[in-house]
């Protein structure tokens, strides 16, 4: 056994014992404890897991042995780098992937491995790999004439799920359609959030997704209430025996959420979930992993059920439209308002709510996902400490900045902790 291999086995033993020393700073040695060494991604993820748990639960905290074994034996899913050898243990062969310094691995590589572990947790929490998503309540006679609900894809789907869980049925044939709307910036972030929690794979990240909209001069269907209402009305009119039953007077655009209970004939509705930007990005990564393991309907149920319950209300700024797109959002929202007025649909709420004001956009507590925050959240969810700092929510932005500076210092100096 070479000196490099002995050093690597010593580092593995150190990490199993809850250690946080980086690979460049490690100097100990040990005998082999298994047939093969784990990859650089697994070892670095375990080190960061130890570091995160110490910060959240105290210097004596360490991950459970079962979690440690899972981290060391799980392979990164999907496309990306395979398991990498440690630099200094094996020589660079000149072909394939070169041995890696774990402290220099891109954070998305670590999140990719963490997402595989979180996906396994979701499948286990949801009742097993082969179980399908729960079915909706059995069809029964409509007690009340409640309209179908469409529009903002994130809020509309969660509203339907909530009411179905109560046994409330929507979509009476004679009750028309309610289309949920909001200011355009909110509908854009909701559209992407719905995609991130859909259990689908190959979804581009938020910055690339939202920045291609002005380039292609388009809006997501869920972010265009009048256009969506027209499409739904046309589809309904094409059904045999139902021509003309969904005209403008049967479609209501709802911009004020406080008016929804009365329109849907229910006593109250739960508030929409509040999911920080980092959690939405992590949901995108976990969804992509679930897409490789379970059918899409099952993945959608797991993401909008158990996963959403864990990240709802966590501290951190919400997802926001980049500042350079604010003027484009304002122009599009004014165009939307004119289109809604021309369509003639009844509007519940102030139509001015559709227009995105530049001052209000700039003043929102919103941000793009941050790789440091996404990795930190993934680690906390693996150890079950994601709620450890909820009480510090007013100072979360400062905590996030301090964590980013701390993480950068750790990577650049290779210091021991």
Summarize the topology:
Blueprint (H helix, E strand, L loop, with lengths): L2 H14 L23 H18 L7 H9 L33 H19 L22 E4 L1 H13 L11 E4 L3 H13 L9 H11 L8 H13 L13 E4 L5 H5 L12 H14 L5 H16 L6 E2 L6 H18 L3 E2 L9 H5 L3 E2 L3 H13 L12 H18 L4
Parallel strand pairs: 1-2, 2-3, 3-5, 4-6
Secondary structure class reads mainly alpha
- Shape assignment: elongated
Please tell me how large the radius of gyration is: 25 Å
Q: How many DSSP helices?
A: 15
Region (Disordered): 127-147, 385-417
Biased composition (Basic residues): 138-147
Biased composition (Basic and acidic residues): 386-417
Write a structural description.
It is a single chain. With 417 residues, the protein is mainly α. Helix content is 48%, strand content 4%. It has two domains: 1-105 and 387-417, no CATH class; 148-367, no CATH class. The chain has 15 helices and six strands. The strands form two sheets. The protein has a four-stranded parallel beta sheet with strand order 1-2-3-5, with helices on both faces. The chain has a two-stranded parallel ribbon with strand order 4-6. The longest helix has 19 residues, at 107-125. The radius of gyration is 25 Å and the shape is elongated. Mean pLDDT is 84; it is low at 393-417. Residues 138-147 have a biased composition (Basic residues). Residues 127-147, 385-417 are annotated as: Disordered.
Q: Care to give the gist of this entry?
A:
Residues 138-147 have a biased composition (Basic residues). This protein is mainly alpha-helical and 417 residues long.
Question: Tags for this entry?
Answer:
417 residues; mainly alpha; 2 domains; 4-stranded parallel β-sheet; two-stranded parallel ribbon; 48% helix; elongated; disordered C terminus
């Amino acid at each position: 056994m070479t000196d490099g291999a002995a050093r690597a086995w010593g580092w593995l033993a150190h990490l199993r014992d809850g250690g946080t020393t980086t690979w460049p700073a490690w100097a100990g040695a040990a005998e082999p404890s298994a047939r093969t060494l784990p990859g650089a991604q697994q070892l670095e993820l375990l080190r960061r897991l130890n570091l995160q748990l110490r910060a959240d639960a105290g210097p004596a905290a360490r991950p459970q042995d079962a979690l440690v074994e899972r981290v060391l034996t799980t392979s990164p899913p999907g496309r990306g780098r395979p398991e990498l050898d440690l630099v200094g243990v094996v020589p660079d062969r000149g072909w394939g992937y070169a041995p890696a310094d774990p402290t220099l691995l891109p954070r998305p590589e670590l999140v990719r491995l963490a997402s595989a572990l979180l996906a396994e947790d979701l499948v286990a929490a949801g009742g097993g790999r082969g179980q399908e998503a729960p079915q909706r309540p059995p069809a029964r006679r409509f007690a009340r004439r409640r309209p179908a609900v469409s529009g903002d894809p994130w809020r509309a789907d969660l509203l339907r799920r909530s009411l179905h869980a109560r046994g409330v049925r929507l979509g009476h044939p004679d009750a028309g359609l309610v289309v949920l709307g909001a200011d355009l910036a909110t509908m854009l972030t909701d559209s992407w959030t719905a995609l991130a929690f859909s259990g689908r794979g190959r979804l581009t990240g938020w910055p690339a997704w939202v920045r291609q909209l002005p380039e292609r001069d388009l809006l997501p269907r869920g972010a265009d209430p009048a256009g969506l209402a027209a499409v739904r009305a046309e589809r309904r009119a094409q059904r045999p025996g139902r021509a003309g039953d969904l005209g403008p007077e049967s479609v209501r655009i709802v911009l004020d959420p406080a008016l929804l209970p009365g329109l849907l004939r229910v006593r109250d509705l739960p508030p929409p979930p509040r999911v920080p930007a980092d959690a939405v990005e992590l949901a995108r990564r976990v969804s992509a992993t679930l897409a490789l393991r379970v059918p899409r309907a099952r993945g959608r149920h797991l993401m909008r059920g158990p996963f959403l319950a864990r990240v709802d209300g966590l501290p951190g700024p919400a997802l926001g439209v980049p500042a350079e797109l604010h003027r484009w959002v304002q122009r599009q929202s004014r165009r939307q308002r004119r289109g809604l007025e021309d369509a003639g649909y009844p509007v519940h709420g102030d139509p001015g709510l559709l227009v995105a004001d530049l001052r209000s956009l700039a003043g929102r507590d919103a941000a793009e996902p941050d790789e440091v925050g996404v990795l930190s959240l993934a680690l906390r969810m693996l150890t079950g400490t994601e709620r450890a700092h909820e009480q510090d929510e007013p100072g979360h932005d400062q905590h996030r900045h301090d964590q980013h500076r701390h993480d950068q210092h750790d990577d650049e100096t290779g210091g021991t902790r």
